[in-house]
Amino acid sequence: MSTAVRFYRGAALRKGRLGIFPGAFNPVTRAHLAVAEAARGQHRLDQVVFLLPETFPHKTYQGASFDDRVEMLEQALAGDPALAIATSKGGLFIEIARAFRAACGGEVEIHLLCGRDAAERIAAWEYGDGPAFPQQLTEFQMLVASREGEYNVPPEYAGRIHSVKMPPAYSGHSSSAVREAIEAGQAWAHLVPDSVARFIRNKGLYGA
User: Fold this and answer.
1) Does residue 45 lie in a domain region?
2) Which CATH number fits the domain that encloses residue 63?
């Protein structure tokens, strides 16, 4: 497993509580920002890293290019020094956690941030020769945002998986909703930060 982490904005945290938010960000939405802010406030995170893996375990790069996604994140996160942008070689949570452990050192508490649907998929994933999910949780904790329903933490994972409460208003905000609205000629700009909406229009992304 690769340990490479590259930062586009910010730098590796050396001490404290780190939140890592992996995603495709195709494009980044207001809901993504709200999840990061809720996790930071509810779980006292010192930094949240928006992580765009070079490869994904369950999807490929389609739509916006890697560079365009980094630029949209740059636009969305401007002005908040506690929000960083990075990439890693691997996309599995255990690969990401080990990459950041190598980059940050032993004084950082690592939390992987995701939505309810992703958490259920990650817990049930077939990891082959790698460590099983319960063993992985000894190396990192998870913060799970309510997304189209609350996530009920299994009792055996209490203390390692924690909930992030989200306002219901964000339940319909998603990257796919943005792309589908653009394709259908419907209103979409309210789903993304204003700077991201301008970037999408200027680049003609997703057919805008």
Assistant:
1) yes
2) 3.40.50.620
Whether residue 92 is contained in a domain is answered as yes
What is d(CA 131, CA 137) in angstroms, rounded to the nearest whole number? 10
Region 129-148: mean pLDDT is: 92
Of all residues in the chain, what percent carry a pLDDT higher than 90? 76
- Does some domain include residue 193? yes
At residue 1, does pLDDT exceed 80?
A: no
In this structure, is residue 88 part of a structural domain?
A: yes
- For residue 31, what are the domain limits? 5-203
In the block, residue with structure tokens 């980094």: 70
Distance CA 44, CA 39 (A): 8
Which pLDDT does position 90 carry in this prediction?
85
Would you say 14 and 46 are in contact if contact means Cβ atoms under 8 Å apart? no
pLDDT per residue as tens digits for the range 85-125? 999 988 899 999 999 999 999 999 999 999 998 898 898 88
Compute the Cα dihedral for 69, 71, 75, 79 and give only its sign: positive
Angle, alpha carbons 6-14-115 (nearest 5°)? 65
For 64-69, which contacts have Cβ atoms below 8 Å and span 24 or more sequence positions?
A: 64/26, 64/27, 64/205, 64/206, 68/199, 68/203, 68/205, 69/24, 69/25, 69/26, 69/27, 69/28
Q: For 126-145, what is the mean pLDDT?
A: 93
Q: How many domains in the chain?
A: 1
